[in-house]
Specification:
Order of helices and strands: HHEEEEEHHEEHEEEEEE
Structural class: mainly alpha
Number of strands: 13
Oligomer: single chain
Distance between the termini: 52 Å
Helix content: 55-70%
Strand content: 5-15%
Number of helices: 5
């Protein structure tokens, strides 16, 4: 926002400078036109003065012409009177030859001088008339030029007024934008100060995060070390307990078993590892790795099997199987049962072990990637049946790298 406001202010300042230049040029042009108009007015005044002088000269010439015409008319009258006197008595006119000759000579010279002066005055009058006409024509041209200059001056004044208004509006806009820019700069300064404080806080938080990360890495290394130790100790414990362990679970007497009154309890748990079996003649004692009495449920059985799931996730081969006579509870122990109104749901070893396996894999997800595949088979009369594929197909056990495998079985990829 600040950069856009600054660019807008710069653009407006450039426009204001352009308008100022145009306004200055307009003012100079207006001043030039005013000077030209003043020059025309001065020339017009000079022309008017010249015309007035010419008018005076013409008036003087006209007066002189009038005097000359008057004198000519008087001379003509005198000539007429002189002719009439000579017819009646010529002695009086020429009584003195010398005087008469002088009078006659002076009288005859006056019309000639008056005629020349008249011609000169007429020529001057004609010249002044032509100069007056020319001056009037120049005056008309200058009036037209002055009218044109007046129009241009009016246009320039209107343009000057428009430029002044535009300049005032631009100045107001620039002032407003400068105020906004100042406010934006103040806001930016406040935000920068806040950002500096936030940067300090972020820097401190980053330092704490780095310290926490270092601590986490140290704890992670210790965790891996402890995990390796746990794995080693766990599997060592499993080996100490026995790679092959046999547990005995005593099935409780069911309601269907009490229909015969002669049914007796022949198997009893003496301890957590001993079982008494009562025979016809005497009782026999059997010892197992773990004995589960009739009162112990599936959770207690899985508690003994759960460490094997950890060994399986650690990479060991694990096998859990149940064997016994028909009706002894193998399926119930391995798969469990669905709950109903009469009895709650029982989770068997297989679903419980699968849940525990995925829980352990979720913990190890940060260390490695894993993939789980499942095969389901049935061994019937020494024949292997693939329950996920073609049950009628023949399958043979092969030894691969010292490990017995059935490579032709169908494998399904399991997802959590």
């Amino acid at each position: 926002n600040i950069s856009s406001s600054s660019s807008t202010v710069q653009q407006l300042e450039a426009e204001v400078r352009t308008l100022s230049l145009e306004l200055q040029a307009t003012l100079e042009e207006q001043e030039k036109l005013v000077r030209e108009q003043q020059e025309l007015l001065r020339e017009r005044e000079e022309t008017l003065l010249l015309l007035a002088e010419k008018d005076k000269q013409i008036a003087t010439c006209q007066e002189m012409l009038s005097d000359v015409e008057f004198m000519q008319s008087m001379l003509a009258n005198q000539g007429n009177r002189a002719g009439g006197g000579s017819g009646g008595g010529g002695d009086s006119t020429f009584s003195n030859n010398s005087g008469g000759n002088r009078r006659h000579s002076s009288t005859s010279d006056i019309p000639v001088q008056e005629t020349k002066e008249y011609q000169s005055l007429a020529a001057s009058h004609n010249q002044l008339s032509s100069q007056l006409a020319e001056a009037k024509q120049q005056l008309q041209q200058r009036d037209a030029a002055e009218a044109k200059l007046q129009d241009e001056l009016a246009d320039l004044k209107e343009r000057f007024q428009q430029l002044t208004q535009s300049h005032s509006a631009a100045d107001a806009t620039v002032t407003s934008l400068r105020e906004e820019l100042a406010a934006s700069k103040a806001h930016a300064a406040a935000q920068q100060a806040a950002c500096s404080s936030w940067e300090d806080q972020v820097r401190e938080a980053q330092q704490r995060a780095d310290a926490a990360e270092q601590t986490a890495q140290l704890m992670l290394r210790r965790f891996h070390e402890e995990h390796s130790r746990r794995r080693a100790l766990h599997n060592a414990l499993m080996e100490v307990c026995g790679n092959i362990r046999v547990h005995c679970r005593i099935r409780p007497i069911l309601e269907s078993d009490t229909r015969n009154n002669d049914m007796l309890q022949v198997v009893t748990a003496r301890s957590a590892s001993e079982v008494d079996i009562v025979g016809k003649e005497d009782a026999k004692l059997f010892e197992f790795d773990r004995v589960f009495g009739p009162q112990e449920g599936a959770a207690a059985v899985f508690k003994e099997v759960a460490p094997m799931a950890a060994s399986f996730v650690d990479g060991y081969n694990v096998c859990v199987m149940a064997y016994g006579q028909t009706g002894s509870g193998k399926t119930h122990t391995m798969l469990g049962s669905f709950g109903d109104a009469a009895a709650p749901e029982v989770v068997g070893l297989v679903p419980a072990a699968v849940q525990e396996m995925f829980r352990l894999l979720a913990v190890k997800r940060a260390e490695c990637d894993f993939e789980v595949t499942v095969t389901v088979v049935e061994i019937y009369n020494n024949n292997i049946r693939d329950l996920l594929g073609d049950a009628a197909a023949k399958h043979e056990v092969c030894e691969v790298s010292g490990v017995a495998e059935v490579p032709t079985l169908t494998q399904w990829r399991a997802e959590q």
